[in-house]
Amino acid sequence: MSARLLAFFLITVGLPLKAVPPSGPPEALRIVFLGDSITYSGGYIAIIDAALIVGFPDRPYQILNLGLASETVSGLSEEGHANGQFPRPDLHERLDRVLAQTKPELVVACYGMNDGIYHPFSEERFAAFKDGIQRLRDKVIAAGAEIIHLTPPVFDPLPIQARTLPAGLDAYPKPFAGYNSVLDRYSDWLLDMAKNAGWTVYDVHGAMNQALEEKRRDDPAFTFAKDGVHPDAAGHSIMAQPLLKAWGMPVAPDGAPDHHDGAAILTMVKQKQAFLRDAWLTQTGHARPGVKAGLPLAEAQLEASIIDEVVRISARSRPDSRPGKTSDWHGYTKRDFIVGLKRATVVSPKQTAPGKPWVWHGEFFGHRPEPDIALLGHGYHIVYYNVPNLLGSPGAVRLWEVLYDELTQRQGFAKKPALVGLSRGGLYCYHWALTHPDRVACIYADAPVCDFKSWPGGKGKGKGDPANWERVLKLWDFPDEAAALAWDGNPVDQLHRLAPHRIPLLHVFGDADDVVPWEENTKLIHERYTALGGPIELIRKPGIGHHPHGLDDPAPIIDFILRHTRVATD
């Protein structure tokens, strides 16, 4: 589709019939999305959320996804749904709870795909859909909120032709091949209500029909939904367009907001949306079996606030020197550039090894550089992200996710780096590994902090650091010291999350360390990880304290990283 045709189409079809020009951003700050599995998957919602953050970083929008897989607004369910395991859940079973607990100012509802139960058109089913939509509207308005309706996405029989049935049969154990014509009628009714009753309706169905037609002019086999129902990322981008157009918010073709860090912002918003959705569904309750349980709501909201803070900082930023400033580092090119408003450092080898392996430092980049220099000679990149004083907290992990996506998705780095954690850097590396064990090749930890009660807490044999202990209480949002001491989320307590992945560990330590006592950190890691079947190697330095780090002969460190990153890269 040409840009001119797309713009014309979105104005004439994608916008509600009662409001052709863009109306500006929503005044409502708390917006709840309701729908079926397409809404549950959250792609178009994350696109809208990210665009609002970039466009209006100082407005505290809260975008809540309460979509539920298999759900209908009509209360209907086909015989034998889910192989007879359970009927389709009915929105009205949970709607009162959702409205009471989320307290929305605006509800965006996208129903219809499941409401015709994949059968040919039926006046009875159509009446149930219309009645369900009207009851939804009445309850939302009675709760003091406004409501926007989205027409349903498209049903595409092309990729599932062998699993569809023609018209005229008595039963439909498989979808009706012409089911999109049923959705056409449901969409037309909603658009008629916009014209005749003043409803606000955005035509997602028409936008997707038109986009699909345009795509198939060049590629007759093109589809947005390989299973005929659930749109891919490109489909979700089309779904978001009518609402974005009305609110005057441009995005890239892939759905990323119009910002130099747009892709990274969208990635983080998707993460936020996923765990907030699960937490809210668990909190409000529903009748569908098999839905992943979420975090406790307060915990999910804390995580979400951390991501929001990071992405809003990024949204306010201006483009920096993205390819960055270059300089010499021990004969190799060092590049410093900005990602997520933080400085990233990447040292490049003269010739990159196959798979583009890399080493990621938690803290103290450049201290005892001998292993890094040797690994550069083997074709490895060396990476550091300048987020000091975050001590491996959830905020640090979220920022690391921004850099990880930049390096792996845009710059082709290996999916599993070797992590290097010196001293407090151990908290960064281990909390990253606990959160993303599938994104770690191995961990080399040198006199590492593995329990913040030991350092900076100083609650054992170590000296402690009062200023950083206060920082821990703030970073993790503990109400008091007792809560921090009772917390069981330190690396020494969570090794069962690493052991199934058999992530290799190497700890180098001095057995006279009185800053980060090995008995409270490395010893516990060794005993507990070994008991769980995890692979770990120790190199003990008798009579040595916290310093110096490293080894006079770094060969064992270099060998450890080479062995385990080569396996991870292959």
Q: What does this protein structure show overall?
A:
Helices cover 41% and strands 13% of the residues. The protein has 570 residues and is an alpha/beta fold. The protein has two domains: 3-261, SGNH hydrolase (Rossmann fold, 3-Layer(aba) Sandwich); 327-569, 3-Layer(aba) Sandwich (Rossmann fold). Helix 16 (522-531) links the parallel strand 13 (505-510) and strand 14. The chain is elongated, with a radius of gyration of 27 Å. The protein starts with a helix and ends with a helix.
Topology at a glance:
Layout: H1 3-14, E1 30-35, H2 37-41, H3 43-55, E2 62-65, H4 91-102, E3 106-110, H5 123-142, E4 146-150, H6 179-197, E5 201-202, H7 204-218, H8 233-247, H9 262-284, H10 297-316, E6 325-329, E7 332-339, E8 342-348, E9 358-361, H11 370-377, E10 381-385, H12 394-410, E11 418-422, H13 425-435, E12 442-446, H14 466-475, H15 481-486, E13 505-510, H16 522-531, E14 536-541, H17 555-569
Parallel strand pairs: 1-2, 1-3, 3-4, 4-5, 9-10, 9-11, 11-12, 12-13, 13-14
Antiparallel strand pairs: 6-7, 7-8, 8-10
Helix pairs in contact: 1-7, 1-8, 3-8, 3-9, 4-5, 7-8, 9-10, 9-12, 10-12, 11-17, 12-13
CATH topology of the largest domain: Rossmann fold
Level of helix content? Answer: 40-55%
Radius of gyration: 27 Å
What is the 3D shape? Answer: elongated
Derived structural class: alpha/beta
Major sheet characteristics: 9 strands, mixed
Counted by DSSP, the helix tally is: 17
The CATH homologous superfamily of the largest domain corresponds to SGNH hydrolase
CATH class of the largest domain: Alpha Beta
Mean pLDDT: 91
Instruction: List the strand order in the largest sheet.
Output: 6-7-8-10-9-11-12-13-14
Distance between the termini: 41 Å
Number of domains: 2
Oligomeric description of these chains = single chain
Strand content: 5-15%
Q: Number of DSSP strands?
A: 14
State the low-pLDDT regions, or none. 1-22
- CATH A-level architecture of the largest domain: 3-Layer(aba) Sandwich
